[in-house]
Amino acid sequence: MNAHEHRLGWRSVSDLRSSASICGLILLLLAGCRNALEAGHNTALDSVDLVKMTDDMAMKIAADPEVQRAYAQHGPLKIVVQPVVNAMTAEVLPRGPAEAFTARVRALLAKHAPDRFIWVMNRDTYYRLRDRELEGIDPGPSPEAISPEYALTATFRSLTDEDPRRRSAYYLCVYELSSLADRTVLWTGSYEVKKIAVKGFLD
User: Rounded to whole angstroms, what are the CA distances from 84 to 28, 63, 120, 175?
Assistant: First the structure.
């Protein structure tokens, strides 16, 4: 074997070792996915979805050309935030989570783009907080003090499927920033996720 053949031989051995390592890593990842499923993740939306969804929606709103154009023409957008509308098939969405999925978008935009948006508290939330003034919670100015121009809303829908072995749920979460004057939609975005859980771990 000459020097060139010798180098090729070592390269082939090295390639085989590299391929074996990659295959091993893929098998480990697949095993990990199976174990995660067997461990019993339920099919409900959770805090991971909350963070991923709201991070994505806030980033898309801030970067949207139509939103930027409205700000350039009229100044900061006055927005009222509404709780999520639950249009899911069987899932219950309590008031706290329903508010959190839109409130976190507001918090992110207020932090990262404070000059572009003015946030107006919706009346239900304002009066609920005002009733707790004695607990040291300041509800801020009345909603009537600032007239909102836009509403940030979200509607969650789901499709579920169940058999004796597992349950699956597909979620479509649609956010809209719409004009209160003429109901036109300035921006819309969506988050989709499918979840599968082994039936034994749900009981």
Answer: 39, 22, 16, 9
